[in-house]
Design goal:
By secondary structure, the protein is α+β, with helices and mostly antiparallel strands. The chain contains 18 helices and ten strands.
Length: 432
Amino acid sequence: MMTGSDSMAEPGFDEERLTGALTRETVKKNVAAIHISGKLTLLQRKLSNVLLLNAYDTLTSARSHTIDARTLAMMVGYNSNDIDSLRASLRALAETVAEWDMLDEQGHQEWGVSSLLSFAKLKNGVCEYAYSPELAKKLHDPKIFALINVKIQRNFSSGHGLALYENCYRFVRTGSTGWWGLDIFRKLMGVDGSAYYESFKHLNAKIIKPAVAEVNKSSDIIIEPQTRKKGRAVSEIRFLIRENPQMAMFQIDDSDGLRQQPVYKALRGQGISDRLARQWITEHGADYVQQKLDYVAGQGAVKSPLGYLRAAIDGDYSLSPDGPVAPPVSAEEEARIREAQARREADAAAEAAAFDARAAARRDRARHLDIVETLVSRRNPTQRDADKRLFLSGLDSDLDREHFRQHGWRSALNAGAIIAFWQELEPEAFDS
């Protein structure tokens, strides 16, 4: 539910003011953290993500983190002069309890609880804040995380929509969230404890349907809810997830800008693949990667410089006496690093080939949809109406039909069916 502070949004957003970690589009958000903050408002949830993005590189090494208050307000969407609302949101984050229940590396169950922020303060136009050490470890854990896109989150206008997006996005590769009991789902949406939402009818009408519609309209994924009953009552819910081709087709790729950075060119000069170089810079930041390049250069001759560079990036090796220092590397360890590097490079090559294939498919699909648009323009109004009714009658999914009603023949979600439909009507138009 929106609160009064959410009405203080400021639409302007000047990306040129952003520096360092804030220039990245995505923040790694640990699975344990995604299950917190259910009762936060939309802007408070966005604030939580931006603070984490700003702090991520030094999350476990710095005792506190700072960000210019006006930049923070700009990124989240607050009116930059509305300090009272910013204070209220920081207070809410400090009062929010983060709870995790997960397996550690040895397979032992670990339960923990912490306030989301251990402290926050505003002074001289700067926001300083910190996480508890144990929560910082969970938030920084690279093994289990979702990538929360801070550009996409600005598209959301409801806290429930953004909460559902966060909880679904981490399952995009598996295609389904798995079954959640309704009590867990209510907690994720921040409506646990409400007698009104004990009724699935109310929960579905006021929370699930609007949130699903916003995720499908505003984000890079398409989700579809499914329910399971115990007796006559709905007891569980899950969401099927797929990439949103509408977003993917028109999303701006800023890879060319990234390739102009000196650190990218330095990585390429070391023999790092284009895709891996962009991945490292995106995930860790240009300054961090450059530090690791400098560290490896200062170690003299090593048998596997590329493997050593990866180890330095993953392990945060540092020349600074205050930072982690790399342990001596044995011959066996270097062999293990080289073997792991070869596997990762093979995986990266396969991923790059798959990415190129998807990009080619998107271009081909866009070209075919252009042909469809031309064919439609040649039909009279009666024919156009008949074409739409005929096409809709062949769609099985309510989601597909609704997407077609919204986007018509440019519905990328139905692109394959649209192209097949028109190829059957006028096959000669697609011969070229």
